[in-house]
Amino acid sequence: MKSIIKPAVTLLITAVITVAALSLVYNLTLEPIEKQKRRTQETALRDVMPRASEYREISIDKEGSITAVFECYLDIDALNFIGYVVQLSPEGYSGKIDLMVGISSSDERITGMRVLRHTETPGLGALAVKEDFFRRYDGLKLVPLGVVRSNPGENEIQAITSATITTRAITKAVNEAIDWYHRNAKQMSDDRRGE
Question: Which pLDDT value is given to residue 195?
Fold first, then answer.
């Protein structure tokens, strides 16, 4: 019996120390991680809707992979509204891809797309964060977009080589943002004007 108690007590003490250390590390890193997430989000907001000076998250019924929607203003006090930024989290090849899509309300075009976080394959799907890829969405009309392997036409995105699943996931999310805009923009515009 004594031979069982000593290893059990040692294991218990080791487990308690390990849990306490993990808890301490978690609590010490939680705030810096949250600050970095907010900074990343603020940078992406400016990148996908560069003309805006102010962004306001609005309350929406989350649907599909949409996680948040922001109204964008040149000047919020003057209610000088210019568009939306839709934040989405579609499923990619290796997990969730957090991204943002900017939509201009004046010319109804995509103002930008940025990937915030991902777990895609390094050197393949991870290339979605590169300017060469995300600029492919800039200025596109708000119509359903397709993915092709080469020679993209109007409203088509050329897939990242060997990362078609990642490209399709991102493009599907951009199409979700476009669809959300078409279903909600007019009503929200009327609401802003108080009609």
Answer: 46
- Alpha-carbon torsion 164, 165, 170, 172, what sign? positive
| pLDDT in the model for residue 39 | 85
pLDDT (average), residues 155-179? 91
Where on the phi/psi map is residue 22: left (φ > 0), alpha (ψ -120 to 50), or beta? alpha
**Which of the residue ranges 27-31, 33-37, 75-79, 95-99 would you say has the lowest mean pLDDT?**
75-79
**Phi, then psi, of 162 in degrees rounded to 5:** 65, 20
User: Collapsing DSSP states into helix, strand and coil, what is residue 187?
Assistant: helix
DSSP codes, 119-148: -PPTTTGGGGGSHHHHGGGTT-BSS--EEE
Global pTM value: 0.78
- 141 close to 156: Cβ distance less than 8 angstroms: no
Q: Give the torsion through C-alpha atoms of 106, 109, 115, 120, to 10 deg.
A: 160
- According to the model, what pLDDT value does residue 78 have? 66
Amino acid at position 87, single letter: Q
* Residue 2 or 89, more confident: 89
81 within 8 A of 107, measured Cβ to Cβ: no
Beta strands in 43-108 (DSSP E): 54-58, 66-75, 80-88, 98-104
Tell me the CA end-to-end span of the chain in Å, nearest whole number: 80
Residues shown for the chain: 195
